[in-house]
C-alpha cells in the first residue's frame, strides 16, 4: 500500500507540468519559495553526497596529495590505487564471500519467511496470533544484544570461521521483518482466487506454490532486497564468527585493510569506495522497491 | 451450486476464516462422512501448518530466542567463556552494573544519543520533507541521493568519516581553506566534542531515511484537504501547522520508535571510528560497545551477558511503553493483535 504511495510521489514528479486546470490551486503555496526550496534541496543533497564523493575521489589521488592537501580534487588523477585493489585476490575473495553470504541469507529468509507468512495470513488456528506476535516482537531483539551467546551457539555447532555460521543466524534475524512485510501482502490475495483454485482441484499447498508465490512477487522482491542490503552491510556477526582473512566479508575486509594499510590512505579510500559500490548500484536500481518496502514495513 | 466454499451447510453460517480444505467435496457427502472428512481435513491442515511454519519457527527459536535466553542464564555467573559456567553469583553481576561507574557513563552516552537523535533529526526531517514535498523537478533523483548514506554500511561510513575527521584530515583542511581555521578541532579525540561529532555522523547517516519516511507520510495525505484549506483562505504556515503536522503525526511517531530502538543498540559506527578503548576516553562509548568490551575483549562473558540482558530489558520496556501509549493507534497493534485483522 505504501509502495504505491511511494510510487505516486515519484510519478507525480515525472509529470510536473501536467496541464490540468485544477493544479493552479494546488501550486499556490509553492510560489512562496521555489528558489529557496531548490537551494535547500541542493544544500541537503550536497551534504549527503559530499563525503561519499570525497571517498571515491580520494581513491584517485596519491598519498602525498592527500597529506599536503586533504580536501582537494585529484591533481593529477591516479588510477593505480583502484587498479591495485581490483587486481588484489583479497578484495575479490571478500567480495565473493559477501555475495555468497548475502545471496544465501536472502534466499533462506525469503523461503522460510514466505512459508510462515502464508500460514499466518491464510490459515485459521488458535496459535496464529501468538505466532505473529513472536515474529513481530523479534524486531525488538537486535543482533548486537544476542551476539555473545549467539557466538557460543555457533561455536557449539562447529560453524566458527564458516560462512554458514553467518548465514544461518542472519536468516533467523531476517525473519521478523520478512513476516511483517509479507503477511499483509498474502492477506490481500482475494479469497475468490483460493476458492477458484480449490474448485479446480488444487490443494492449499498447490495454491501456495502456483498462485501465492507469483502473486506475492512484489513483496518478495522488496523483502529480498532489504535482506540483501542488510547482509551486505552486516558487521557485528562476521566480526565474531569469521576469523581467517580468507573467510572475511567486505565490511570486515574494509576494516582489516584500513588498519593494515593505515599509512596508505589513498588505497584505503579506493578499497572503501569499491566496497560500497555494489550496495549503491543495487540501491539505485531497486530504489523504489527499497523505499517502498521500508516505508511499507513501517506503516504496516 | 449453492454450497459454495467456506459456507458451512449445516449452520448456513459464512465461516470467514475456518478451514476450507476440500469444502466442495465435503458438502456433497452425508453428515457422518462429512464429519470424518472434516477431521481428515483438519489433520491435513495441521500437517500443512507444521510443515510450512516449522522451519522458520525452529530457526527463530534456535538463533534468536535461545541466545537471548542463554544471555540471561550466563548473566547469573562469573564466567570467562571456557567450559560450562560454574561460578554462580546470583544477582551479583546486576548489583555490579548498578554501581559500575563505567556502565553509568555508557548508559548516559546512550541516553544522550537517543534524545539528541530525536531532537536533532525529527524537526530537521519534518522541515526538509515539507520543503521537498512541493512540486519541484527531479524529486526521484533527490530521493536516491539523500538515501545514499543510509544504504552505505556503517563500516564504510565509519572508515570514511574517521579519515576525514582526523586532525590533519579533510574537514579541518576544508575549514582552513574556507577561512574558518579557528573552527578546526580534534573532532574525534576531544572528549567534549566527540559525542557531537558522533551525533553529526549519525544525523548524516540516518536523516535521509527519516526524510523519505516523512515524504511517504506526506504523500498519503489527500490533496483535497489542502485545497479545501486554501479555499477557506488558510496561509501556507497555517496549513502546515493545522493540517499537515497532525496528519503526519503517525509517521513521526513510528520514525521516533525506530530511532529510539536504533539508538539503544548503536554499535558499529562507534566501534569502527573509535574502537572500544578510545571510545571510553573520547566519551562516545555506548552500552553495546561496553558489552562487547567486557565480553569478547576482556573475557568477562558473565558480566557482558548481564549487560546484554539490561540492554534487552531497557529496549523491551521502552518498546512496550511506546507501543502501549504512543503507537497504539498507528500500528494496529503489530505486536499484540496484528494477526487478527
UniProtKB/TrEMBL annotation, chain A:
Protein name: Sugar ABC transporter permease
InterPro entries associated with the record: MetI-like, MetI-like_sf
Provenance organism: Streptomyces spiralis
Record Pfam families: BPD_transp_1
TM helices/strands, residue ranges: 36-57, 95-120, 132-154, 166-186, 207-229, 268-286
Domain of life: Bacteria
Recorded family membership: Belongs to the binding-protein-dependent transport system permease family.
Subcellular location: Cell membrane
GO cellular component terms listed in the entry, alphabetical order: plasma membrane
Residue span, ABC transmembrane type-1 domain: 95-286
Record's compositionally biased regions (Low complexity): 1-14
Claim: Transmembrane helix is one of the keywords in the record: yes
Chain intervals for the UniProt region annotation (Disordered): 1-29
Gene Ontology BP, a term: transmembrane transport
Topology term for the membrane: Multi-pass membrane protein
Annotated keywords: Cell membrane, Membrane, Transmembrane, Transmembrane helix, Transport
TrEMBL record, chain B:
Subcellular location per the Swiss-Prot or TrEMBL entry: Cell membrane
A Pfam short name: BPD_transp_1
Membrane topology: Multi-pass membrane protein
Annotated region (Disordered), positions in chain: 1-23
Superkingdom classification of source: Bacteria
Predominant place of localization: membrane
Keywords per UniProt: Cell membrane, Membrane, Transmembrane, Transmembrane helix, Transport
Alphabetical list of SUPFAM superfamilies matching this protein: MetI-like (SSF161098)
ABC transmembrane type-1 domain segment(s): 107-322
Keyword Phosphoprotein: no
Keyword Aminoacyl-tRNA synthetase: no
Swiss-Prot/TrEMBL GO biological process terms: transmembrane transport
Entry GO terms, CC: plasma membrane
Transmembrane segments annotated in the record for this chain: 49-76, 106-132, 144-164, 193-216, 252-274, 301-322
Family of this protein: Belongs to the binding-protein-dependent transport system permease family.
Name of the protein: Sugar ABC transporter permease
Species for this entry: Streptomyces spiralis
Lineage of producing organism: Bacteria, Bacillati, Actinomycetota, Actinomycetes, Kitasatosporales
